[in-house]
């Protein structure tokens, strides 16, 4: 991957130029589909865009010192990490990539939730701190399953290169791994039944309680970009191997959209679980499947 | 920017000693029957995120400082909607020794939504009006100027409409 293709992927497709409108679109799809399932009409199409522009025009409370600087910095780091994660997705056939870019993608996907944890603690609000502690507990729980699922896919295909993973024919291991990733996505995106860190009516807005104006706009954007990156990861792993670039792009967008609809349906149909139930769910119920997946992947690798 | 402000009012709901009647009606305006999210309304958990402060209740001694603190925590441009007759006039609790109301002694109120309790459609209309005021004021930097919404009730056969309007002007004066 040379510099020009890397820049084109980061800035145009599937990077910023595609990802920011897609982030707004997915946020709208989530709100609209939840509204439709509740028998409401829901927000207009441009709503996330209006919210973003409005938040950019609001004032922020004065903040001084290192704490204030950090509070301004965390949302920017989260947006940059989520946007780069979208840029790494191998949407084009033969788009390049490098050995080990799956590991970089996982790190970039994890960075926004690290930023949320740090942001809650640096806001020095009691609700922010409770939200951050919950986010940390949640992150420790789902990440074990999430990482084991991805490692089992990678181990069964003998590579840590995203493009090679996307192009190889699907195996049963692939589908078990994808299922495990799908189970982790509601926790990663903080939607019901795992919307614990930003639980409204419980702890105000969790880590975001003290954020206002442009900083909150950046948090909304990074949340939208996380949607695009996480659903895009599932879409690239699930998509069949295609040679035509425009068919590949359409299949990528359609699969991402289907995953967004599925997650919104789950969010609309469930209520928020308590933190101990959530941690128990991931450690007791889904960890067994993840361990089974990775052990069978290693076994198959030794046999072949 | 002005259009976005008008289309995206985020609310923070605050109880200033209310009997909970208006609070229930405010929540009812977000339910499937009235669905205020069509106008971009979102009920936010933190006053830092909100644009419009919705206050119910006749403002008791205990609530005054909390209301002032929360008003200070809402980031500008902002607007205040007084929901119900209590924050406008202190209603049936008038002359009570536990009250410090009405609300406009403490905060610049933009929209009064009278009623005991007001109907959800009146609250949605008041919030939409407040969003328009907020957008206009932010664009032109105008001072606060209160607006009283007309009473919205179940359809009547004409007899009750005239007293309704009269009552509204009385509240305004």
Describe this structure in words.
The complex is a heterodimer of chains A (304) and B (173). With 304 residues, chain A is mainly alpha-helical. Chain A has one domain. Chain A is built from eleven helices and no strands. In chain A, helix 2 packs parallel to helix 10 (245-269), helix 6 (126-157) packs antiparallel against helix 8 and helix 8 (172-188) runs antiparallel to helix 11 (275-303). Chain A is globular, with a radius of gyration of 19 Å. Chain B is α/β, with parallel strands linked by helices and 173 residues long. Chain B has one domain: Rossmann fold. Helix content of chain B is 38%, strand content 13%. Chain B is built from six helices and six strands. Chain B has helices at 2-7, 21-28, 61-73, 85-89, 120-140, 161-172; strands at residues 10-15, 42-43, 52-56, 79-83, 111-113, 147-148. A six-stranded parallel sheet of chain B has the order 2-1-3-4-5-6. In chain B, strand 1 (10-15), helix 2 (21-28) and strand 2 form a beta-alpha-beta unit. Chain B is globular, with a radius of gyration of 15 Å. Chain A binds chain B through residues 31, 35, 38-44, 46-47, 49-51, 53-54, 57-61, 127, 200-201, 203-205, 208-213, 216, and chain B through 1, 3-5, 7-8, 10, 32, 35, 37-38, 40, 43-46, 48-49, 51, 73, 75-77, 138.
User: What multimeric state do the chains show?
Assistant: heterodimer
Distance between the termini of chain A: 31 Å
Q: Which bin fits the share of residues in helices of chain A?
A: over 70%
State the total count of DSSP E strands of chain A. Answer: 0
Give the overall average pLDDT of chain B: 82
Quickly count the domains of chain B.
1
Q: Over all CA atoms, what is the radius of gyration of chain B?
A: 15 Å
């Amino acid at each position: 991957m040379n510099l020009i293709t890397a820049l084109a992927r980061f800035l145009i497709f599937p990077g910023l130029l595609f990802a920011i409108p897609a982030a707004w679109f997915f946020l709208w799809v989530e709100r609209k589909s939840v509204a439709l399932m509740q028998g409401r009409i829901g927000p207009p199409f441009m709503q996330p865009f209006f919210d973003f522009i409005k938040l950019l025009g609001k004032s922020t409370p004065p903040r001084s010192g290192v704490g204030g600087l950090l509070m301004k910095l965390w949302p920017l780091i989260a947006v940059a990490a989520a946007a780069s994660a979208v840029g790494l997705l191998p949407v084009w056939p033969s788009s390049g990539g490098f050995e080990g870019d799956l590991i970089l993608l996982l790190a970039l996907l994890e960075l926004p939730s690290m930023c949320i944890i740090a942001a809650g603690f640096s806001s020095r609000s009691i609700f922010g701190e409770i939200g951050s502690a919950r986010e940390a507990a949640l992150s420790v729980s789902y990440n074990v399953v999430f990482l084991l699922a991805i490692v089992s896919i990678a181990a069964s295909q003998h590579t840590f290169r995203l493009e090679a993973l996307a192009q190889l024919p699907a195996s049963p291991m692939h589908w078990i791994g994808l299922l495990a990733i799908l189970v982790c996505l509601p926790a990663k995106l903080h939607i019901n039944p795992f919307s614990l860190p930003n639980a409204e009516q419980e702890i105000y807005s969790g880590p975001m309680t003290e954020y206002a104006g442009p900083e909150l706009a950046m948090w909304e954007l990074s949340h939208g970009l996380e949607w695009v990156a996480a659903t895009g990861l599932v879409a690239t792993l699930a998509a069949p191997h295609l040679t035509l670039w425009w068919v590949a792009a359409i299949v990528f967008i359609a699969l991402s959209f289907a995953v967004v609809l599925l997650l919104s349906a789950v969010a609309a149909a469930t209520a928020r679980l308590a933190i101990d139930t959530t941690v128990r769910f991931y450690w007791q119920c889904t960890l067994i499947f993840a361990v089974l997946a990775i052990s069978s992947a290693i076994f198959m690798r030794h046999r072949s | 920017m002005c259009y976005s402000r008008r289309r995206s009012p985020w609310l923070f709901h605050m109880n200033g000693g209310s009997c909970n009647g208006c609070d229930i009606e405010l929540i009812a305006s977000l339910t499937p029957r009235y669905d205020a999210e069509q106008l971009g309304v979102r009920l936010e958990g933190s006053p830092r995120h909100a644009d419009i402060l919705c206050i119910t209740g006749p403002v008791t001694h205990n609530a005054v400082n909390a209301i002032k603190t929360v008003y200070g925590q809402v980031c500008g441009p902002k607007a205040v909607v007084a929901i119900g007759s209590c924050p406008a006039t202190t209603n049936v609790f008038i002359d009570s020794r536990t009250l410090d109301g009405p609300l406009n002694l403490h905060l610049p109120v933009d929209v009064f939504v009278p009623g005991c309790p007001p109907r959800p459609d009146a609250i949605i209309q008041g919030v939409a009006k407040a969003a328009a005021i907020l957008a206009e004021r932010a664009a032109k930097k105008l001072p606060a100027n209160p607006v009283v919404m007309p009473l919205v009730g179940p359809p009547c056969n004409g007899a009750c409409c005239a007293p309704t309007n009269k009552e509204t002007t009385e509240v305004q004066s």
